[in-house]
Amino acid sequence: MNYRFANRMNKIPRSFVREILKVTDDEDMISFAGGLPNPQSFPVEAIKDATSKVLTQDGDKVLQYSTTEGYHRLREYIAERYQGQGLEVGVEDILITNGSQQCLDLVGKVFLDRDDGVIMERPTYLAAIQAFGLYEPEFHPVPLLDDGVDLHALETTLKEEDVKLFYTVSSFQNPTGITYSTSKRKKVAELMGEYNTILVEDNPYGEIRFMGEDIAPIKSYLPDSILFGTFSKIVSPGMRMGWIVAPPEIMEKLITAKQASDLHSNYFTQRVVYQYLQDNDVDRHIQSIRKLYKLQRDQMVQSIRKYLPTGVKHTSPEGGMFLWVTLPEGVSAMELFQLAIEENVAFVPGETFYTEDPEINTMRLNFSNSNVEEIAEGIKRLGKAIEKLQAN
Amino acid sequence: MNYRFANRMNKIPRSFVREILKVTDDEDMISFAGGLPNPQSFPVEAIKDATSKVLTQDGDKVLQYSTTEGYHRLREYIAERYQGQGLEVGVEDILITNGSQQCLDLVGKVFLDRDDGVIMERPTYLAAIQAFGLYEPEFHPVPLLDDGVDLHALETTLKEEDVKLFYTVSSFQNPTGITYSTSKRKKVAELMGEYNTILVEDNPYGEIRFMGEDIAPIKSYLPDSILFGTFSKIVSPGMRMGWIVAPPEIMEKLITAKQASDLHSNYFTQRVVYQYLQDNDVDRHIQSIRKLYKLQRDQMVQSIRKYLPTGVKHTSPEGGMFLWVTLPEGVSAMELFQLAIEENVAFVPGETFYTEDPEINTMRLNFSNSNVEEIAEGIKRLGKAIEKLQAN
C-alpha cells in the first residue's frame, strides 16, 4: 500500500536527543545528555503506601473512568499551592494532563492554524518545537540574554509579525538554565497585553531552586495567560502528571481538546499522587531534591572551571537541571560530540534547540542525573575531547 | 484579551454524552447512558498486589521516564496474545497509548490534512467523530447493516471519493452492538487494498464476547492496516492503557506523533498492568466479565420485549456493552429523553452518533454498568416514558 501521510509529519524534526539516548545506554558512558531527575529523589515507599491506601479505600472508583478535567481534590491542591505563592488560581482554572508535554500539544491544538505566528526563545525546549511544529506554525525566534528574553527583539517581533503565542520557560530554562528577572517578567507581561499575544509559560523546574530567592511566575503579573506545571521533577516523571492553568474561555477549549485527545488523564495515578501529597511533607521532600541538585550543579561548575579551556563559557543556573556551555567561536559541538562519545561522555549539541540558524558551538549539560564523582570524571573526559578537537 | 482560537475548534461538536453524564449523577437515576464497565469486574486486590510488587522490586525505574514505544515486555505480551489468535504481530508493531481514544488522535495527526476523506460507519462512535474532527477531514458516512457495513455503499464511496481512512468498530460496535460477519470482514479487506485506503479497526470489545464464536479482526485478512486495542474493558479504564498495532512505516510516524503529544504513556501503570497480567489468570477474569455482561444483556433484551411497545426494534448483540434501539418512524429520541429523565432513567439519543442527517428515532442503551434489577426497572420506566410521549 502506498501511504499518504499528513503534511504536518514532514515538518517535525527527528528527536536528536532520542537518538543520543540510544548511544548513551552503555554502562561506561557518563551521560549529561538526558533530562532525567535523579532516581534517588523518587519517594518509592511513600508512593507504595499511597497506592495501597487508595486501592483499599476506594478501589472501584480509582479504576473507573473519570472526568476530563481531572481529580477535583488534586486540582484543588494545586490551586491552593499557587494561592500560597500569591497567584489567583481557582480549581476550575486547572486541567490535569499527561505531563507538561501534553500541555504543549493541547495549546497547539486549541490555538494554532497553519502559518500562525509563535515566538520561541532562542534557544528553546526541543520538545516544544516538536509539539507546536505538528500544527505547522511560523516560528519567530527571539534571543535569550542572561536575565531572560531580549525585550527589544521581543517588542520588534511583536510589532512586525502577527503573533498568537509566546512560549517561554521562565525559570531555569531548558536548555540554558537561564531565569527571567522580576523586572523582565513584569515587562513581558505588559508587552503581551499590549500586543494581544497569549503568553504560554512553562514552569517545570520552578520548585527546584537551590540558590537565590523564589520568583513568582509571569502569570502573577498577567492573569490572562497560560501556565504549565508538572509533578515530573518533584514526584515522578514516569507517572506523566502535569497540568495547565488557564482562564475560563481558554480552559473550555482545552477541555474539549483534551477530551478528544484521550478522554482524561490516568485517574488511578491522579489518586495516588494526591494521596502521596496529602500524607507526606512535600516541601521537605522538595528541599531534599534542591540540596541534592545543588551539590551536583556546584560540582559541574567547579569541574568546568578546572577541566575545560578558558575560552569556554557557561551559565551558572540557580536551579533546574541544565547548564549551557558555549565553546569558542567556530568550534562545532556536533564534531565534539563524536570525540566525546569515544571518551565515554555524552551531552546534547546545542543546535538541536534552535528553530533556525543554530549556534553550532553550544551544548546542553544535564547535572541532575549523575552523582558528583561522575560529574567530575565526565567533565574531565569532556576536557580531553575538547583538547583532541583543538589539536585536529 | 481577545482570543483567536484555531479553526479546528469550531468544528468539533460538544459532547452530548458528557452533558448527559452530569444529569445522570442523581442517585435515583438508572442510567443506560454512559459507557462504563461494571466496577464489580475490576481486579482491585490483584492490582494492589501488582503495584506493591513492581514498586518493591524496581521502584526507581518504575517512576522514571521511559521510552515512547512503551514497556517492552507489555508490548511482547500483547503481540503474543495476538499470535495466539492467529495474527502476525510482532513487538515492534505495537505502541502503548493512553487508552484507545489516544489511538484516534494519533492516527488523525499522522494521516489527516484538512478536507481529507474519511469513511465512518453510520452511526459511529461519537468520540471518533470528535478526535478525527479536530483534523478537519471530510466525513463520508456509510450505513451499517445487521452483519456489518453496507458493502455496496462502501464500494461506491471508495470509487467516487478520495478516501484516506475507513474507521470501523468491527465487533460489538459502539453505539449499535453490531458485529461484522467473517465474509464481510474478508470483503472489506479486499476493498481496502483495491482502493488504497487505510483500514482503522477499533476493537475495544472484541474480548467481551458472551455468545457465538470468536471472530478474527479484519486485520488478520489485511496485515497492512491499523488495529486499536485497550485494557479498559478487561482490566481498568481509569488507567488509560491502550495500544495501536500498525505496520513499520506507519508505526514510525505514530511514534513521532506520540512523542510530540506526551513523550510516553504512564510507565508506572504500564508496569503495574504487565505485572497484573503475569500474575493472574487473565482469561478466567475475562470469562467472569463475559458471564456478568451476558446476564445483563439478556435481562435488557427480555425487558425490552416485555416493557417496550411492539413498534420498537433493537439489536441483540453477542458481546460488548451496548444495544441499539430504533423507535417507530418519526418518534424523536431527544424528546423521549426529556420524559425519560422525569421517570429517572437515562440513555443517549442516537442522533449524537451521526456525522450528518441523524436518524432521530434511535437511541443507545448501555447494559454493562447496571445490575439486572436496575435493568428491569429502568426499561420499565423507559416504557412509561414512551407511553407518555405517544399520548402527547
From TrEMBL, chains A, B:
GO MF annotation terms: 2-aminoadipate transaminase activity; pyridoxal phosphate binding
Record carries keyword Transferase: yes
Cited SUPFAM superfamilies: PLP-dependent transferases (SSF53383)
Pfam families associated with the record: Aminotran_1_2
Residue ranges of every copy of the Aminotransferase class I/classII large domain listed in the record: 39-382
Any one GO biological process: alpha-amino acid metabolic process
Cofactor: pyridoxal 5'-phosphate
Record key words, sorted: Aminotransferase, Pyridoxal phosphate, Transferase
Signal peptide coordinates: none
EC number: 2.6.1.39
Keyword Transferase among UniProt keywords: yes
InterPro entries in the cross-refs: Aminotransferase_I/II_large (IPR004839), Class-I_PLP-dep_aminotransf (IPR050859), PyrdxlP-dep_Trfase (IPR015424), PyrdxlP-dep_Trfase_major (IPR015421), PyrdxlP-dep_Trfase_small (IPR015422)
Family the entry assigns: Belongs to the class-I pyridoxal-phosphate-dependent aminotransferase family.
Quaternary structure, from the entry: Homodimer.
PANTHER family: AMINOTRANSFERASE, KYNURENINE_ALPHA-AMINOADIPATE AMINOTRANSFERASE, MITOCHONDRIAL
Name the UniProt record assigns to this protein: 2-aminoadipate transaminase
Source organism: Methanobacterium formicicum
GN (gene name): lysN
